[in-house]
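Reopening this one. Same input as before:
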Amino acid sequence: MSSSEESISTPSSCRILAVLNQKGGVGKTTTVANLSAVLAQSAKRTLVIDLDPQAHLTIHLGADAETPPSGSYAVLTGAQSLEEVLVQSRPNLWLLSSGIDLVGAETELVNEVGRETILRNALQHIRERFDYIFIDCPPSLGLLTLNALAAADEVLIPIQPHFLALQGFGRLLQTIRLVNQRINPALRVKAILMCMYDSRASLSVEVKNDIEKFLESARQNRTPWSGASVVPVQIRRNIKLAEAPSYGKTIFEYEPSCHGADDYRAVAQYLFGQISAEPQPVSLGDTPACEQTDAGEKARDKA
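Same output, byte for byte:
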């Protein structure tokens, strides 16, 4: 990080959350980008880590996803330390970027001893400088996701309420259980977040009820999800949430008065508490480190 960027002081504690679902298009990246934005605007020092080679989070925040090596690739392969590649995206918000080069990381690390805990080890020396760390996981259960689960304290699972979303839910939980048993005994599922939710559709309500019943039945069992809950606030379908990434903006910069912004504020309040009810939009001109405007233009041109 350059000397011109805001220094990172040391908060009292840090929560690391892996945002995970092996199915794509369920709202993982949108959730990471906008929950982290709420926290950052509420003066919580927040780090977001993009572990998806598609680099959607990096693009969403207006950063460069096309110039190798990406931050995540450099850290996982040992080319650079985490401190060297962090970029301040906005006030109180830092980014470890991703790029297409991350596709090769799993192959390159296949013979590396302790390859599942590289990210956890890298975060040990920096995690206490932040209040929150979010890891945007790829839509798969490979080595990148294992690194995220090994490093995390909690898992947040976004789900789109339809039948196929439930098909992989059990497998996802079993993967979390294996990581809990073999690599990270502190790992817990924090919550299930319903995204692209339509309360008028009976299927949406049925999926939500099925997950709630499953979690309730697990209360007495000693599993990583026995304390999990379905977030009582759903992320409603909202076109502004879909448009914001092409401009390299969070929903609070793009359209802070829309339903999507309201929903993510409420989810942040439920999950983390003590969040400003109406965080002020951040001017992209205040944070030139990522050159958000230029990157946002490039992303929109490709959309």
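So the earlier flakiness isn't reproducible anymore. For the record, The longest helix spans residues 202-217.
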